[in-house]
Specification:
This protein has 25 helices and 16 strands. By secondary structure, it is an alpha+beta fold.
């Protein structure tokens, strides 16, 4: 086989054992890798509690990883979410996927609970379950420094050890496997880190064809203003869209009570560049280099972090945004969930969040002290405990990112139907509604959005399975990546073939959520967005969403997705996709 390694490593931390599985070629073609293959293994035990010893914790690469395929240096981490109970997955950069593939593995499936705090160390075929007592309580940066020379490092920080439900995993210090609390999935297994080292070359079927397909993608990327333009991601990182979001009057402000932030122009990507003089950096094998690192070696905040630690909490101190991002990374906490939870706290208590208070609260969350123990449960549980559940801006318990749904109706629908909750990356209709790629659509209508979202969900599912970076699809399409896949694996594949795989992967996630009790009632938005207007101005009106129009759009999505009127999977659709569905 080319592209794949044909080997999956199963590790049982409870028994301290490991074994090798060789999945069939049919399974590999059916699920491809990354998110798809991880979902295949998760499905077997999807209804177990997230902290069950038998709940799989999966780390998977894809067939393009560790080849010269553009933007392929990624991996997927997947389990069931400690924060939401939904499917939990994160596509993460850094060297983790590349090292794992070069070590000879398509993925790892971790089960069991270690009797001691441990780390998994993989050096090609040598697998060691190491005692991690010496790194207990250390930050993600400290752990990574201690493990220098052991390859790529995926580590949790104090937040996960202190049971913060939105804790994450940091890969090689700067790359976050964030959202949904996957760091706590590590901690539930008494696992502090995974270190992987590999040097073996990954053979491809047709190197010449791969080089030609790669060059075509490079040409398309070079012509993309969003990616490579002087105001694009390569120059400014994802923060390049900070001004754009505010100018469209859809920047979540003061816990989503407003949608415009007057001081935004002094807190944009240009201001960060002038203040911190960051250097360009990217994931392994990526030429876009959207990751920005400060002069002293700390990660610059991404767009969502910039927005939420400024507008959402009413902060005008640029240094606080930088320091809050750094603190969350060191402690291993999701910045989106952390900021939304703080904004919820501020609205409930009426407390003004000064820079010092913000950092103090983040410290308390990460260390599991004082009110931080409550805030560390996420905004949904915190607001419910305070008797104000309506002030938690979440979908399925996952805190909303930095695009107010009243300013982009496709994003509103995408949030609601996302399998992992309030997530902008399952479909990202902002591409159409704000960035005008691949085609411009009216952002203030639900018309046509159901189909756009379904198509984008399928595409992104297979992109996270190959694996590649979603950003490159501002320029390239699955047609180009089908050529890459064919050249790597030798399996003649079209864009439509890949889309069918993506549909299978996403439907599998809907099935897993349905098995865990998620229904149409969970495919919804906070009531605030249907009752309160946004911040109109500059000849832009931001009315509240119309409930009837939203429900109609959701029903259209269900029909297009092949779900019944209650949003539940259909047996005949599942069977047609090669899946099983037993309600």
């Amino acid at each position: 086989m080319k592209g794949w390694r044909g080997r999956v490593l199963h590790i049982d931390l409870g028994r301290g054992t490991h074994r090798v599985e060789r999945p069939s070629p049919e399974t590999l073609y059916k699920y491809v890798g990354g998110k798809g293959l991880a979902g295949c293994y998760l499905r077997e035990r999807a209804t177990l509690p997230w902290n069950s010893p038998d709940m799989p914790l999966c780390i998977f690469t894809g067939p393009l990883v560790a080849t010269i395929s553009p933007t392929s240096g990624r991996a997927t981490v997947m389990s069931r979410s400690p924060l939401t109970g939904t499917v939990a997955d994160s596509s993460v950069g850094g060297r983790l996927g590349t090292e794992l593939k070069r070590a000879g593995w398509d993925g790892i499936v971790i089960t069991g609970v270690s009797p001691f705090l441990c780390g998994i160390e993989i050096d090609h075929d040598r697998v060691t379950i190491a005692n991690a007592a010496t790194v207990a309580g250390l930050t993600t940066e400290q752990v990574t420094s201690r493990l220098r020379g052991k390859g790529a490092v995926a580590a949790i920080g104090p937040a996960a050890e202190n049971r913060v439900r939105f804790s994450n995993i940091m890969v090689d210090r700067h790359h976050s496997a964030g959202r949904t609390g996957l760091g706590l999935s590590f901690a539930a297994k008494n696992l502090k880190y995974v270190a992987v080292k590999g040097t073996r070359r990954v053979p491809v079927d047709d190197l010449g064809a791969l080089k030609r397909a790669r060059e075509e993608i490079f040409r398309l990327a070079a012509a993309s203003p969003v990616l490579m333009g002087e105001h694009g991601f390569s120059c400014f990182g994802t923060g390049a869209i900070y001004d754009l979001t505010d100018s469209r009057r859809m920047m979540p402000t003061d816990n989503f009570t407003k949608t415009s932030f007057e001081p935004a122009s002094s807190l944009n990507a240009a201001a960060f560049k002038e203040r911190y003089h960051p250097k360009k950096r990217g994931c392994k094998g990526c030429h876009i280099l959207c990751k920005k690192i400060s002069q002293e070696g700390r990660s610059m905040p991404e767009f969502e972090t910039m927005s939420h630690f400024s507008a959402l909490i009413g902060n005008v101190d640029i240094n606080l945004v930088f320091e809050a991002n750094s603190l969350c990374n060191r402690y291993g906490m999701d910045t989106i969930s952390a900021a939304v939870t703080l904004a919820c706290h501020a609205e409930i208590t009426g407390e003004r969040l000064t820079p010092g208070r913000v950092l103090s609260l983040l410290e308390e969350i990460g260390r599991g002290r004082g009110i931080g123990r409550e805030l560390g449960q996420g905004s949904k549980r915190y607001a419910a405990h305070a008797g104000k559940p309506g002030l938690s801006m979440t979908v399925k318990g996952l805190e909303l990112p930095a695009y107010d749904p009243r300013g982009a109706y496709g994003m509103a629908l995408a949030y609601a139907v996302s399998t992992r909750g309030g997530c902008h990356l399952r479909a990202y209709p902002i591409s159409h509604e704000i960035l005008r790629k691949p085609v411009a659509t009216d952002r203030f209508t639900f018309s046509g959005k159901a189909r756009i979202i379904k198509i984008a969900e399928d595409q992104n599912a297979v992109v996270d399975s190959l694996t590649a970076c979603k950003f490159i699809f501002f320029a390239a399409t699955l047609e180009e990546y089908a050529n890459v896949f064919t050249a790597v694996t030798g399996a003649e594949t079209s864009a439509q073939d890949l889309m069918e795989v993506g549909e299978r992967i996403y439907y599998n996630e809907r099935i897993m959520n349905a098995l865990n009790g998620f229904t149409k009632d969970d495919d919804d938005l906070p009531e605030r967005f249907f009752r309160e207007h946004g911040s109109s101005g500059d000849s832009i009106e931001i009315p509240h969403l119309d409930r009837e129009e939203f429900v109609e759009a959701r029903a259209k999505y269900y029909r297009i997705r092949g779900l019944d009127e209650n949003g539940m999977p259909k047996e005949e659709v599942a069977r047609g996709l090669g899946l099983t569905w037993n309600s």
